[in-house]
Amino acid sequence: MDISAIKAKLSSLQQSGSKNKEKIDYTKVYWKPKQEGVKYQIRFVPSKLDKKNPFKEIFVHYGFSKFPTLALSNWGEKDPIIEFAKQLRKTDDKENWKLAKKLDPKLRVYAPVIVRGEEDKGVRLWEFGKEIYLQLLGIAEDEDYGDYTDINDGRDFTVEAVMGDIGGRQGLKSSIRVKPKTTPLSTNKNDIENWLENQPDVLEIQRKMDFDSLKEVLQNWLSPKENDEVEQDITAEEENDLPWEKKDVKPEPAPKTNYTLKTEGKKPKSKADSFDELFEDEEN
After folding, report:
1. How many CB atoms are closer than 10 A to CB 261?
2. d(CA 38, CA 117)
3. How many other CB atoms are found less than 10 A from the CB of residue 115?
4. Do residues 26 and 244 lie in contact, with contact meaning Cβ atoms separated by under 8 Å?
5. Dihedral (C-alpha) 212, 213, 216, 221: value to the nearest 10 degrees?
6. 124-128 and 30-31: which strand pairing?
């Protein structure tokens, strides 16, 4: 055995493991208006991932664990929470349908932007909800504005954070206003090339859970331990709170009714067996 080679291999693996554990500086990846009353000027940049559409729709599960979880459907894969909701809708129980609606993942939208005055930070992703999304789509459809991402004759936007109602509580909400004058993305050709090429991808950055792990999260939520502390609403959509900034958030309790499965005339089944059977048709 070559001890020197063994030591070199061990050192290589240890260094590799250390690199994989490095924390991501999310301030270099994401942007959002943080201060109330401050007006930010931004420019939407044509997406490297989709030349025809700068907006990336992402579906998120809220309230099942400490942090929001991206649905596996974002990667074109089956998601146990979504599949469970489908199975609930196959029953004729009203409570099951109510629960299924709550289980549906919530829409969030990401778009690459340049923040004026912070061009040196490059392209970052702005995350927002349905309300802002509809406004942006409406402006794009308006012939008076057109393609505001055009690198030569596009338009900047003014973004301001204002206090407003978010799911029954007060929080910062974003308001947008399109600039009437067209301007180039930049007068520096190198900057434009850099911004069009170097853009973060949310699906590469955010953690992806596998099917079995997410299924276990769902099962724990449906059958919580008695001493579990729960607070967060799974139906809540945070307007300005990004996933990595949600600290000490606890999952919401499942409804007391949970789900119902009719078993008349049959030997009673355990809750775990009934839960697993909901996935059998999808897995076989």
Report:
1. 17
2. 14
3. 18
4. yes
5. -140
6. parallel
User: pTM of the predicted model, to two decimals?
Assistant: 0.76
What are the tokens at 75? 């990667």
Give yes or no for a contact between 158 and 180, defined as CB atoms under 8 angstroms apart.
no
Q: What is the mean pLDDT of residues 243-250?
A: 48
The residue written with tokens 């493991």 in the block is 17
Residue 216's nearest CA partner among 271, 276, 260 is 276
Q: Which residue has the tokens 């309230």?
A: 63
Cα(33)–Cα(172) distance, integer angstroms: 9
* Segments in the chain forming alpha helices (H): 3-20, 80-88, 94-103, 130-141, 189-197, 202-205, 211-222, 271-283
Angle CA 34–28–189, to nearest 5? 110
120: three-class secondary structure by DSSP: helix
- The residue whose two tokens read 């664990």 is 65
How do residues 175-219 score in pLDDT, each as one tens digit?
A: 999 999 999 999 999 999 999 999 999 999 988 999 999 999 999
What are 114's two structure tokens? Answer: 């340049």
Q: Any alpha helices (H) in 104-251, and if so which ranges?
A: 130-141, 189-197, 202-205, 211-222
